[in-house]
């Protein structure tokens, strides 16, 4: 039994949203109770006490779309790579990296990503992986790292024809094998989706293979209309827009995530809504790739479930929240929009997306919910209450405020130190793998 207390409690639960001196009691993998610290300590006198030291006690954050395969790219400059459009970004950077990513490189990428997520208070990730150098076993390699470090994860592999039919078939098989394993294990920490890359890299023949291999086991996680490449390819080769292609091939539905959805029409938004399909916005990545601003405000008007991801541009969900607000306001030329939508995406909708795959409730501190809890260092110098929590989140906090992270009832990061994780040893091994990857990409020794 654990008690996390001596801080301000933010639960994201309607029953008890805020307590100035609150606490959370954890029994095993779930939350047993929330309430005043004095009451919980009196009720559970033998519980281990995790001291929030006056910080903010809140639910762990969820990243609804990221890419572990970019984990070793920090600081990397690929010689001769100077992209001027989105396709050149893919070909020169990301496809280039994943074509050199071995199983060890995948493991190293997973270590780097998961450690950063834990530091930033992220307790659940939905990952979309690619390592076309070595595909078989890659999702299982990521799964092993997530289990070792304690991360809650929903994984898939990025099916694409960009490297030929054999690699495409291997990607389909990796998704299917991993989905079968997850179904048999029924582990609430590790789940599976069936991944697909941008539609301009996938033919209808491959969609048919994906649907057959999936056999209804899980939903799909696909990049859609991130760049205009998808729109042009669908119109020229299939006589319809991207969302229509997905509809005709049977990939939409209430367990499917569409990443990005920037260049979608009003009619396509209607299809997304009517099929109950989910969308995940990645504001920083979209800006960095200069692909445009997703019509998220219109999606909300349609009643579409829209979540927030990072596309691995960062692992800091609060950073993405800040950027979402300003890109949407800039795009709409209105300084009074996107506040409610942004906070709803991160704190409510990501939890709803999580509920599609994980049994225990996520993103909330209440009895029966998953014991995913973080403590943020934050000393307000302006009034702080249940009425303005989100304003403090937007303008006062970042992921690096996180001092303690608990996932599934296990303390993984306490007072800015990893618990039971040899960070130095992991970093040393990851550095070796990074040097190998960078050396192959730039044909020199690091």
- Summarize model confidence as the mean pLDDT: 98
Low-confidence segments: none
Q: What is the CA-CA span between the terminal residues?
A: 47 Å
Helical proportion, percent range: 40-55%
Query: How many beta-strand runs?
Result: 18
Q: Please work out how many helical segments DSSP would assign.
A: 15
Radius of gyration equals 21 Å
What structural category arises from helix and sheet content? alpha/beta
Q: How would you characterize the largest beta sheet?
A: 9 strands, mixed
Element layout with pairings:
Blueprint (H helix, E strand, L loop, with lengths): L1 E9 L7 E10 L2 E7 H7 L4 E4 L4 E4 L1 E6 L19 H13 L4 H17 L2 E8 L8 H12 L2 E6 L7 H21 L4 E3 L1 E3 L7 H11 L5 E5 L3 H11 L3 H7 L8 E4 L5 H10 L2 E4 L1 H6 L7 H7 L3 E3 L8 H16 L6 H17 L17 E4 L12 H8 L5 E6 L2 E5 L2 E2 L4 H20 L4
Parallel strand pairs: 1-4, 1-5, 6-7, 7-8, 8-9, 10-11, 11-12, 12-13, 13-14
Antiparallel strand pairs: 1-2, 2-3, 5-15, 15-16, 16-17, 17-18
